[in-house]
Description:
This protein has a single domain (3-253), classed as Butyryl-CoA Dehydrogenase, subunit A, domain 3, CATH 1.20.140. It is elongated. 64% of the residues lie in helices and 11% in strands. It contains six helices and five strands.
Amino acid sequence: MGxxxxxxxxxFTGLVSLTLQAISLGTEYWFEATVRNRSLIRDYYNETVLExxxxxxxxEKRGLFSYCGYHYEPNTSSTQVPSSSIDNxxxxxxxxxxxxxxxxxxxxxxxxxxxxxxxxxxxxxxxxRSAAGLGCIMLGLQLCGVLTSWQAAWTVxxxxxxxxxxxxxxxxxxxxxxxxxxxxxxxxEINERPSVLPQFPEGYVLDYSWSFYLSWASLGLCIxxxxxxxxxxxxxxxxxxxxxxxxxxxxxRMPQQRYSRSKLIPSF
Length: 268
């Protein structure tokens, strides 16, 4: 495959990687819950109301910047309940008491100390905030890499190709770290829930969703794009070195050719 084809493929994969990362960060489908036994959801909320004044929310879906959860609100008008909530709770729970609310994370406000299981929530807070921050850094590096790659393709400057590859590779490192933090946050949330909080119902399963897999696809394309730009930069550098060396050798041969020709000219 020639360097032109590699360059075009790198431009395409870099742009697709940027698009996928932007979509994954902007959506809340990193995790999505499935409810297999709806009566257990009812029991969870009934028991929690008796034990705690502040009810821990069961997430319906969750992203890096927002989440949607099942909220227990007694005597709520049924007109305020989304249709999805009514469908989810037709098996024995009064839909007028449950609403699905979507909330944006406030990373400037830590969990209060009076909250039951505050250490658990603070750990999740730091993991989620770090994952979101590193994801945004990856997106910024991808954007800079895409813009620089188009400039490099237009001007054909070797150092710009090197810069593109470096940006994409650093972005990949940030994205990988962000995804590992997301994995750690998920495992901690599911497996390290303190005893002071009610455990998740048996029929409630929180699992990865399509936004999470989009971010992994973006990471793979980002790595591929970075490697391709570094390959193009190396190939262009080798051609520049070879061309420069050829010119130097040509200059060295020029005086010798002139001297040899002068000896052939007869003198009068």
